[in-house]
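Hey,

Quick one before I head out. I ran the complex with GLP overnight. Inputs first:
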Amino acid sequence: MEIIRVKDYETMSKKASEIVADRVKTLENPILGLATGSTPEGMYRYLIEKYQAGEVSFKSAKSFNLDEYIGLSADDKNSYNYYMFDKFFNHVDILKENVNLPNGTATDLKQACLDYDQKIKDAGGIDIQVLGIGVNGHIGFNEPGTPFTMRTHVVDLTESTRQANSIYFSSLDEVPTQAFTMGIGTIMESKEIILLAYGESKANAIAQMLKGEVTEDLPASILKNHPNVTVIADEKALSLV
Ligand code: GLP
């Protein structure tokens, strides 16, 4: 696991965008694993700048997002689908048909999970997966206690995660109680992973991930068993390491 210590959010975002842009340029048909949340927003901003400057094109790229709320339609402002188009896809040349997120309004949830995993497999697997980290060490929506072998599945969100994500909703009641998430098994099959973290609220999770044992109680700890992980974190997120 390589750790890149940066001074702040902007530097983290820039560094992440450089790594992703490099893989997009190098690989013939890059398969990107993408994340939502406040953490990768800056990275998307820098990637858009690179695209506008003619430095990178996403025309041959495919993307798979980590997770999506169940019950929110693609055009719901709080859906991850909406976030991705608003913050990234609408501003670059990725083809709409190459963009994949779990379908938040699917009726057969089990089948939707199987289909999503199959699509990733058919695409040849994820080349580079971008991850944020939850304050409790979750990745995607894999909450503490999730078996490491899980594939894409439906999760009941913990109260702390709903609370943390409620800032985007007008009230806590509106935050969905369930979500689709790629499982740890799916995430660990990515050829390369970059995990981004900034701010004090992540310091505890980052310290546990780096210094503690590999345990399902801290989902991100499994990343220590992956051969190609880069953590890009700012000084605050690394303050307890
Ligand atoms: C959510 C997402 C995760 C994300 C995490 C941290 O629960 N499902 O993919 O990494 O929150 O979010 P933020 O980047 O806003 O701190």
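Residues 2-234 form a domain with the Rossmann fold fold (CATH 3.40.50.1360).

Talk tomorrow,
K.
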